[in-house]
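User: For my dataset I need records formatted as: sequence, then structure tokens, nothing else. Please produce one.
Assistant:
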Amino acid sequence: MEALQMIEGFKKFLMRGNVLDLAIAFVIGTAFATVVKTVVDNLVNPLIAAIGGSNVNGLAVQLNDSNPKTVIDFGAIINAAVVFFLTAVVVYFVLVVPMKKIQDRRAAKAGTPEEEPETLTMDQELLVEIRDALRARPLS
């Protein structure tokens, strides 16, 4: 259940336009980008190239054989998507989840002041008295 809440929170984090979250994502994303890119380059790219067949380009397609600039590299696109997703996951689980837990603990420690009960109208007071009288009456 908690994992589902974390995943739901992750979805909300990705869809939210909060400037602070974007700043955090930028700073941490920059810091983790090298690590994630290295993992993807050395683990994911060889797997993608293996799936792509014996072609040197892996999952790439060259539109014009005489022009090497006409290569559409699907592996690079998949690589970029994986880097983005892993960076977002790291930012969320390393920063956002712990910060939310810290904020929740602070709020619980500070204690939220209990709201004063609303004053009852004359009719409501009468109904409460009737209810209490009926509860106090022995069952026959």
